[in-house]
Amino acid sequence: MRRLARAVSLGALSLLAGHALWAQQAVQDTSPFRALALPTPNVYRAADGRPGPGYWQQRVDYTIVASLDDQHDVLDGSETIRYVNHSPRTLTYLWMFLDQNICAPNSVTNQLNQPPLVFQDAVFDFSCRGFKGGVTLDSLSSDGVPLAHTVYGTTMRVDLPHPLVPGAVLTLRAVWSFPIPEYGAGRMGRDGSLFEIAQWYPRVAVYDDVHGWNHEPYIGAGEFYLEYGSFDVSLTLPARYLVAATGTLANPEEVLTATERNRLQAARQSDTPVAVVTAEEAGTPATRPATTGTLTWHFTADSVRDFAFAAGPELRWDAVNYDGILVETMYRKTANRWPEAIRMARAAIKHFSEQWYRYPYPHATTVEGPIEGMEYPMLTFVPNGTSREDLQWTLSHEFGHEWFPMVVGSNERLYPWMDEGFNTFIDMGGAESYFAGTPYADTLALTPLHLYPEHAVPGEEQPLITRPVESRDLFWTGYRKPALMLHLLRYEVLGKERFDRAFRTYIAAWAFKHPTPADFFRVMRDESGMDLDWFWREWIYETARLDQAVDSVGPRAGGGWNVYLSNRKEMVMPAEVRITFVDGSTETVRLPVDMWNLGQHFTYRVRGTKRITAVEVDPRHVLPDVDRANNTWHR
Fold first, then answer.
1. Is the pTM value of this prediction over 0.90?
2. Which of 88, 188, 540, 573 is the most exposed place for a label (fewest CB within 10 A)?
3. What DSSP designation does 165 have?
4. What's the pLDDT score for residue 30?
5. Element (H or E) spanning 63, and its range?
6. Strands 206-208 and 325-332
């Protein structure tokens, strides 16, 4: 009997313990502070968010020889690719991109004929507008042996004749050509005699420790994810053309006049702009070493993930120094707002370098043209702009991409918020600095918050983790909402000093590497000292809404007053509370997010016994509260 009673007691205790564990897990499963399900840290990616001791990434070096036929708008090229397998895996095939196949008649983009995306006043048509183009791959070989390959739209599988073991090097050679579209998916193209050339050479996809081959096709909205390496590029064009490109010009004596070289040298030592080619000189024979035939421009670059160039015969050219970096603008004489662009460009490179991470390349050049705005290492494409503010924003935004993703090489095909969003966030500070003291600068940071009601529509809004090709409102999910997210994290959650230190650490830790969202989350947590899983979940993985409210005010036993607050939606955030007393005095308290640890209700015990006449949460109106009618209480 005693044994039976003891067994029953033990069984009851076990049942109670099991019920308690279940109840605890149930609470944890619904808590906004529950841990995110992140990949387990390993030797490649450490628990503190930094690259682990075994971190690796592949290296790809390109040697390219290409020529531009401006009479028939055709680009011909050949390239040698040196691919180093730093992975611990033996590879039997490679994946490559043929981005210009986006313009092929049978491309996915042309078949779908998707409507353009509208970004406020800008319209982005990620197609070639009916242009019949595509890459002609004349040959693909290794050591003189043709390689078996299969093309799937903008991607290509290349089967290797021999397995590529860890540490081995593979050399590929490709010969190709393509007709240059007038409007190439909004990222490259031509306007009369001005060419802005990008996504133009066959290139190897990223192979990493997270996904293996990253071969998401280029169909428009998703931009790039590429390996770092070196480029040695020779471009042959008509002699009357000026060229801007990724990399350092290796043969200035052959393609620039003595006057241009002298002015460039002066610009490298001047903090005020120097006209390398003036308005009067642009398009005249005096600006070129030769007026007929062709010239070959030779560029080299290292630690870059892409290469682009622009060329035109009638470009003005301004240049200026910032801390040993040559900042340049090239633009047509019709670009009436661009004389100021050189000052905007220098200010952008200066701001981003001093605020976040020093610009690592020898030059930063922007070219005016038909492309709405696009970025490549050391080179950006920017239009004339509709206003001075519009020009500064676009120019600064494209230069901001030199940090995200050119230096911090995240996967734009999967996570645009780590690229466009981070960049939009740092752009706001750059614009505020440039236009300091104006109403535009004073209200700029509030723009994403003001856009919230229009874009964060329940049932229609998508999480930030959505792939760009699936996003119905990329302007919001890729650009403005992540900028709002980081702004609030900086000023309302962590504080400026704490945030800035952590964000700089992330940039430095992943410079010239390939971070994932988990790496970013872990660096921010480790460096700031705050667990932020709750924040990332509601902002990135969900479309949570915030509704902080003042429920009531009542007397406290023993004297004094209680303010009863509630969190009526899914999102949790710190709360700022302004209390007004009967004598007209006020008190503002900032309560950390931990106030919601025990649930959706919180009682704030007001110090002192003065009678309260009014209470308001979020009195500065800085949070995306969806119902401000319950934010105030009046006696």
1. yes
2. 88
3. -
4. 85
5. strand 59-69
6. unpaired
Asked whether the domain spanning 548-634 has the same topology as the one spanning 434-541, the reply is no
State how far the Cα of 474 lies from the Cα of 478, in Å rounded to an integer. Answer: 5
Instruction: Determine the Cα–Cα distance for residues 491 and 572; give it in Å rounded to an integer.
Output: 15
Look at strands 59-69 and 274-277 and give their pairing.
unpaired
CATH number of the domain located at residue range(s) 434-541 in this protein: 1.10.390.10
Could you tell me the strand order of the sheet in which 575-581 lies? 586-591, 575-581, 612-617, 632-634
C-alpha 152: how far from chain center: 27
- Rounded average pLDDT per 10-residue block, the chain, 635 residues: 43 48 55 96 98 98 98 97 98 98 93 80 85 97 97 97 97 98 95 97 98 95 94 97 98 97 98 97 91 95 98 97 98 97 98 98 98 96 96 98 98 97 98 97 94 96 96 95 98 98 98 98 98 98 98 94 97 98 97 97 95 97 98 96
Q: Which fold has domain 548-634?
A: Immunoglobulin-like (2.60.40)
Structure-token pair, residue 356:
């976040």
Fold of 57-222: Immunoglobulin-like (2.60.40)
In this structure, are residues 189 and 182 in contact, taking their beta carbons and an 8 Å threshold? Answer: yes
The CA distance from 618 to 625, in Å, is: 8
Sign for the pseudo-dihedral over CA of 522, 524, 525, 531: negative
Residue 407 has which token pair? Answer: 């230096």
Residue 629 CA to residue 632 CA, distance in Å, equals 7
Please give the Cα distance from 237 to 250 (Å, whole number): 16
Q: Which of 191, 192, 193 is nearest to 370 (CA)?
A: 191
Q: Reduced to 3 states, what is the DSSP secondary structure of residue 347?
A: helix
- Rounded Cα distance, 328 and 363, in Å: 7
pLDDT at position 113:
82
Spell out the domain ranges in the chain.
57-222, 434-541, 548-634
Amino acid at 575: A
**Closest CA relative to residue 463, chosen from 485, 493, 490:** 485
Q: Determine the pLDDT at residue 166.
A: 98
What pLDDT is stored for residue 124 in this prediction?
A: 82
Which amino acid, one-letter code, is at 206?
V
Choose among 197, 211, 219, 222: nearest CA to 95: 211
Please tell me the chain's helix, strand, coil percentages from 3-state DSSP, rounded to the nearest 5.
Answer: 30, 30, 40
Neighbours of 137 (CB within 10 A): 18
* 335, 368 contact by CB (below 8 A): yes
